[in-house]
Design a protein that fits this description.
Length: 364
């Protein structure tokens, strides 16, 4: 179990992360999701003590600094470009293994596991971005660790690579490890993670099982299809319902199909189709993070814990629930595409930071 308690960091320009507390359980992949600039990398660096800041994170009760044999306990992918560009992939892994007390046979094993055997003798600087990412992951796996902390592990990978890493992380979690992987890609995280920690503007937006997140917060609208949308729109509005027109469809802000059908019946408007449409991952996430971004003065943000934080909806794809009304129609609705990035934070104007700390800008 990873326990992060009161993590915080303030940069001079007001960016950073607020008072973040959450837990990460073993046996599942936990997705750490947030738009560009939300504070994911900062949080990960704080968890590992790689940057100065507030709070404490324990891995099975000990901080990263206290863990004996950190390489063999906590595997970290924080900077895929960490290998010296002139050193071969194999030499880099041998060097890290020697420093971390890991037997050198592990080098061959992780090269094979990450699909790098054929480029093992290539200098790291001549590897593609995807290969560098695999090398970072190989480094994290060297010590066969119980905990994995991975910052954007799918970054730079092609679609096959993304699928490969998804399968790999699920397998590692299935072995009982604790896998914590950040991403700014919505659908990718939904396919990978069982638990979700969402941050925006340096604040915790939600934490908990993905399914629960969806159940508790998915928003549903009734969609009505009719040849007479104007007449139905007036009737629905008179009945106190919020409604908008999308092409010839009316989207009614309720999940109550019977009420919509009754209003249509009273108004004498024939409805061709009536169904419930649940909001997709993208919609829900954007709504959640927009609210957090609007409120964001991250460095000064008050405490936000997993239990106390407001949560919002996400779903891997949209579901259309056929309604017991006029002409039931289970029409597939919007779903997030596999590569839908979350837009950058409105409140954070600094470009995404994969860059190392700029210490002179920091306030401890
Ligand atoms: N060393 C630094 N000095 C000043 N500001 C920083 C520094 N590092 C990060 N920031 C700012 O802190 C905020 C959070 O950045 P961070 O890199 O943690 O976000 P992120 O969620 O990992 O983003 P991305 O998905 O783009 O990698 C951003 O506004 C960023 O510009």
């Amino acid at each position: 179990m990873i326990v992060a308690d009161g993590l915080g960091k303030s940069y001079r320009d007001g960016a950073g992360v607020g008072d973040l507390s959450f837990t990460v359980r073993p046996g599942v992949v936990t997705g750490f999701l947030g738009p560009n600039g939300a504070g994911k990398s900062t949080t990960i660096r704080l968890m590992l003590g790689l940057t100065r800041g507030r709070g404490r994170t324990t891995f099975g009760g000990r901080t990263y600094a206290e863990v004996p044999g950190p390489l063999r306990t906590v595997g970290v992918l924080a900077d895929a470009a960490a290998a010296h560009p002139a050193r071969t992939a194999a030499a880099h892994l041998h060097m890290v293994a020697a420093g971390g007390g890991v037997p050198s046979r592990r080098v061959r094993e992780v090269l094979a596991e990450t699909g790098l055997t054929s480029v093992a003798r290539k200098p790291a600087g001549r590897l593609s971005l995807g290969m560098k990412q695999r090398l970072g992951l190989a480094t994290a796996l060297l010590g066969d660790p119980e905990y994995l902390i991975l910052d954007e592990p799918a970054n730079g990978l092609d679609p096959q690579g993304v699928r490969w890493i998804r399968d790999l992380l699920k397998r590692l979690a299935g072995e009982g490890r604790t896998v914590f992987a950040s991403s700014h890609l919505l659908a990718e995280t939904a396919l990978l993670a069982e638990d979700l920690i969402v941050i925006a503007g340096g604040r915790l937006v939600s934490a908990g099982p993905l399914d629960e997140f969806v159940r508790r917060h998915a928003r549903a609208d009734v969609v009505a299809r009719t040849e007479h949308p104007a007449a139905l729109l007036v009737a629905l509005a008179r009945d106190g319902l919020r409604v908008r027109q999308e092409a010839r469809d009316l989207v009614v802000e309720t999940a109550d199909t019977e009420r919509v059908a009754a209003v249509a019946g009273r108004a004498g408007v024939q409805v061709r189709e009536l169904f419930v449409r649940q909001s997709g991952l993208e919609d829900a996430f954007l709504a959640a993070t927009a609210a957090a971004s609007a409120a964001a003065t991250p460095a000064a943000a008050g405490p936000a814990t997993a239990a106390a934080a407001p949560a919002v909806a996400a779903t891997a794809g949209a579901a259309a629930t056929p309604a017991a009304a006029a002409t039931p129609a289970a029409t597939p609705t919007e779903s997030a595409t596999a590569a839908t990035p979350i837009p950058p934070q409105a409140a954070t104007t600094t470009p995404p930071s994969a860059a190392p700390d700029r210490p002179r800008q920091e306030l401890p």
